[in-house]
Amino acid sequence: MDKMMKMKKKSLPFDENVRRLFVILVVLLLVTGITKSTAFVNLGNFQSIGKQLTEYGLMSLGMGICMISGGIDLSTVYVANLSGICAGLIFQSSNTGAGVLAGCVVAILVGALCGAFNGMLISCFHIPPMLATLGSYELFMGISVVLSGGSTVSVNGEIELLSSLAILNIPLPFIIFLICTAVLAVIMGRTKFGSRTYLVGTSEKAARFAGIHVKATIIKCYLISGMLAGIAGLISLSRLNSAKADFGTSYTMQTILVAVLGGINPNGGAGKIPGIAFSVIILQVLSSYLNQFPAISNYYRDLIWGAALLLVLVFNVEISRRAAKKKA
Amino acid sequence: MNKKVKSMVKQTEFYVLCIIIAFAVIIQIRSGQFLTSNNLMDLVRSMIVPGIYAICALLSFVSTGADVSFPLIAALSAYVSVVLGNKWNLGVVPIFLIAILLGCLIGCINGFFIVKYRFNSLIVTLGTSSICSGILFGTFEAGRTELPEKLYTVSKVNIATVKNSATGLGSALPSTFVIMVALYVIAYLVLNYTMIGRSVYALGGDEVSAQRAGIAVEKVRFGVFVVNGGIAAIAGLCYAMMSYFYMPNEYAGAEMLVIAAVILGGTRMTGGVGTLRGCLLGTFLLTMVSNSLILFGISVYWEKVVIGAIIIVGTAISAIQARNAGNPFAGKKKKEA
Amino acid sequence: MAENMLCVKNIKKSFGGVHALKGVDLTIKKGETHCLAGENGCGKSTIIKVISGFYQPDEGTIEIDGKSYENLTTSDAIAAGIQVIYQDFSIFPNLTVMENLAFNQVLAEKKKFVNKKEFRKIAEEAVKKINFDVDLDARVESLPVADKQLIAISRALLHNAKLIIMDEPTTALTRKEVTRLFDIIAELKKEGMTVLFVSHKLDEVFEISDSITVLRSGENVHSCPIHEMTEEKFTYYMTGRNFDAIPQKEVPDFEGKEPMLKVQDLSAPGFENVSFELHGGEVLGIAGQLGSGRTELSLALYGMLKPYGGTIWIDGSEVKLNSVADAQKMGIALVPEDRLTEGLFLPQPIYKNIAVASMDSLAGKGGFLKESSELELSQGWVEDIGVATKDHTLPVMTLSGGNQQKVVLARCLATNPKVLILNGPTVGVDIGAKYDIHQLLRSLAGQGMAILVVSDDVAEVAALCDRAIIMKGGRVAGELDGADLNDENLYGATV
After folding, report:
1. What is the pLDDT of residues C289-316, one digit of tens each?
2. Which of A42, A109, B151, B277 has the fewest CB neighbours in a 10 Å radius?
3. CA nearest to A135, candidates B259, B13, B48, B51
4. Are A124 and B313 in contact, with CB atoms under 8 Å apart?
5. What is the DSSP letter of A25?
């Protein structure tokens, strides 16, 4: 019997999907650069792109991880808001350096708590993720309303630096986004936890029989998503100098779009983190590009993204069909 | 008789009914205002649009999965029909027909991607919802619009009014209530007394068996999403009628509570199970909670917290029940060899 | 009047280059019960789908009850009296019994409206035919598997069936339910019904059929009346190989040695007061039918089912198995009953499936896991166990049943277990792979592993195990070893 085995080279976290996205990004940058070079290709514009994509980019990473585990996190925006409000309230009461630090820690902690709560609803009570995060988002929004008294929480002060600072001309938020992407790519691609998440997303039952702590894995996924939302909330607070309970309701849909566009299979068990990052950048570049055409109002974005989602899904299916035909 | 009582008690709807009664009693005791005619009429009035949406959610869950596009289909269809109604001075029936037609067309988009490519219905309907939003606000730049004259007249028609002599508060039941009732009656008859209706349930129960039995699975599923589009369009117009103006920003976001209501009412996310009665009960429960918190003595600020808690507790119970139903080893001993 | 109910000749069918049927003949006499046997992938399901009109053959002739059919459609087949009862019964779990029985007929009659009275009449007529007493208003999902099958049969009989095809009907039935099914088949036979029965279970084949046709790789191997068939011939026809009987094992002597696994008065939902000892190097069988508690016992020993009474010792120390992780730490591995949903991650690569339980030991500091270490581990096991694949980065679902089972085995063995529990180790596995697995298990025992084989296949238990414990109704009903451990005794004890 032929015992020759194909030894796979150490695989980068780049699969076909991700490579495709990378190509699209390059093409897009070229097109935008050429057609609107003066207005588009300047530092200020790229900086603004980098800044604006961070918040929903972080949430998309979280959404992606939850999807890989076989679930979904509809509450991510509201966790971000709640974290922002909590941090904002702390900043309001104390403007010292320690206060700022405390606020940041609280934001991430709140995010983590909310995430863990979601994780427990899903793994311990066996509530389907869509419903669990639907209920929890109402809950988080409600708590936000109560804490903020129904109005906007405004802040001033050092926290603004978080969004306005730039290192080597790269906006800090974007650096944070890149760091998070890199860390998550490593976690999901090269650790036991990441491997287990993919397996849980493929088949929870088989994972249980294989000895994987399914509950712990799921809780960790939603915890990470919550923390990312917390950071996003903090950045949003910094950028807008305020936080409120119902900010960014359309972001939920956007993060799902981004994750799916980035190659994450909504049924679980497949998709790579860098894909999400590329997908976010593509969408923000596209969005910024469209801003150059005053005739195309912001609202068109929704139309384009909705259409893009459906088209990309179809495109992916057609490509795999063609690949399967070639093999046969 | 005993068997029927036993099976009734096991159903989720029974629990929801109990909770509704419990809430009603508590609210009544606390405020004395619950069982007043004007409050009850307000409740029913608030239920009309979510109730119609609930039919969409039921149909999609039973046959396929989640559908989150109905509020925006409603918004877009209603807008186009209102604008055209104003332009050509149309009567009520033509306006509704235009809306329904457009709703069905958008439903075709949903149906196409879900049936031909077998994509997850949540994702596809998210995409469609997004597209509708883009067309509504981007292409059409929709804003607050006055209703066409004839439609406005009908919207002002109330089939019943009550006035609470004690508090002086009044309430009215608009003509749109008739539309909701009509839709439910039609839905009931079709789902229970026609083969197409039963095919929707059959397909949701086991798609392969449905195919083998000879059901045109793809056509039925496609039809469900087309019909959903039409129903959503009707809801959209009703909403505009009840507000006496068309306001595009009011539509988005309704899907989550409707889905929660339908699930609380016993519809299974996995498909095949769900009743109209359950939809009404679930919708009533959530509407009651949002409307009556004040009567409960709870500040409006806590509304979302309470609703979120109810959804979480309700779905947890339903999830635990489902697990026990499907798992014969859960705590039981199997005796025969 | 034709003598044959069904006569198909030279049926060829290919799917995109794969020749599923290479010229198959099948002749079934009227009123006989004919068995169709063959390993997985031999073409059994394909020929059934051709007979029922679901597939159109590329070549060949079909004759049903003397009438020739050029392009047989499913409606033609149904009209000709052919009814197929699939393994999953084709029922609607969310609908009532009544609706399940009447639905297909009303649909076929192209009726648009639902008349509840009519449904009930049809349903009552159906269950009367086999004297099936069932609550017509019950939701089918709440009924036991055997009832679901009877619903499928009743429904099949509604359509003036002349030939009933049953695809592996006894897979999910208890012994009692199988007897009931066979009684019904006998009744149907008396009324002149022709039955085509797909099965690989030797004892059932011999019990119920009048004649048998064996297929292999899309071709006929042999057809004959059942009295001309023997077990050796059957095995030979199915696989094309002659198997030397596994050398008669000497019953090992464990006097004075500490058992690797000891169970005392263990009770959990599904079984009560089970006690036994298992030594390293011993192959112990737990024989029992569906519902005997054997599966629950295996789950309890793997930490998946919490016992409410009794004790477990591993290698001399008492242990509490509250989770699968606990069991794995103690050196226990389980090959689960249903490999497709419990044992494998079908879309994931083979090497990931093999490495999944070893991640902790493969991972470095901080939980970092190198893919190369997974690949290396997998390659080793694929070679050792003999998984037939050239590329272990392919999804495991591309493998045949037997090879998939070997993957599950590899994953368990990769954890270096002291106790290996297997539940139904060769279900749905071809005879060739079955033999390989049995060989492997005996050699593992020879190296000192303690092996527990939980199975409802008495032949397997008799051939493989040194000793067997019989479970019935949740309790230990007896023990057999040495010369007493044979098919007949086991069969008699488990029923």
Report:
1. 777 888 999 999 999 999 999 999 998 8
2. A42
3. B259
4. no
5. H
Distance from CA of C419 to the nearest CA of A (A): 15
Strand partners, C311: C264
For helices B195-205 and B37-63, give the axis angle rounded to 10 degrees: 70
| Mean pLDDT in residue range B41-57 | 92
Q: What is the pLDDT of residue A4?
A: 35
* Per-residue pLDDT at C77: 84
CB C56 within 8 A of CB C219: no
**pLDDT under 50 in chain C at which residues?**
none
* C-alpha of C211 from chain center: 22
* 3-state SS, one letter per residue, for C403-457: HHHHHHHHHHHCCCCCEEEEECCCCCCCHHHHHHHHHHHHHHHHCCCEEEEEECC
The chain C residue lying nearest B196, using CA atoms, is C112
Phi, psi of C202 (to 5 degrees): -50, -50
CATH code where residue B171 lies: 1.10.3470
Tell me if A276 is assigned to some domain: yes
B4 located within any domain: no
Q: Which of residues 56-85 of A touch B (CB under 8 A)?
A: 72, 74
pLDDT, averaged across chain A: 84
Work out the minimum CA distance from C16 to partner chain A, whole angstroms. 8
Domain-embedded: residue A27: no
The residue-averaged pLDDT of A268-275 equals: 89
Counting the structural domains of chain B, the total is 1
Q: Percentage of chain C with pLDDT > 90?
A: 25
Tell me if B2 is assigned to some domain: no
Q: At residue C217, what are phi and psi to the nearest 5 degrees?
A: 50, 45
Query: Using an 8 Å Cβ cutoff, are A262 and A108 in contact?
Result: no
Does residue B35 form part of some domain? Answer: yes
Cross-chain residue pair B208–C88, CB shorter than 8 Å: yes
Nearest CB to C474 within list B192, B198, B335: B335
Domain span at residue A279? 43-311
| SS3 label, residue B275 | coil
**Residue A16 counted as domain residue:** no
Structure tokens that stand for B289 in this block: 């909670």
- Segments forming the whole domain that contains residue B115: 12-323
- CB-based contact B319 A307, cutoff 8 Å: no
Query: Which two three-digit tokens encode residue C144?
Result: 């036991």
Query: Chains contacting A with at least 3 CB pairs below 8 Å?
Result: B, C
Does residue B5 sit within a domain?
no
Number of folded domains in chain A? 1
Q: Which domains does chain C show, CATH number per domain?
A: 4-239 (3.40.50.300), 261-494 (3.40.50.300)
Instruction: Outline where DSSP puts E strands in C168-252.
Output: 194-198, 211-216, 219-225
Q: In whole angstroms, what separates CA C285 from the centre of its chain?
A: 18
Q: What is the ipTM of this complex?
A: 0.83
User: Does residue A22 lie within any of the structural domains?
Assistant: no
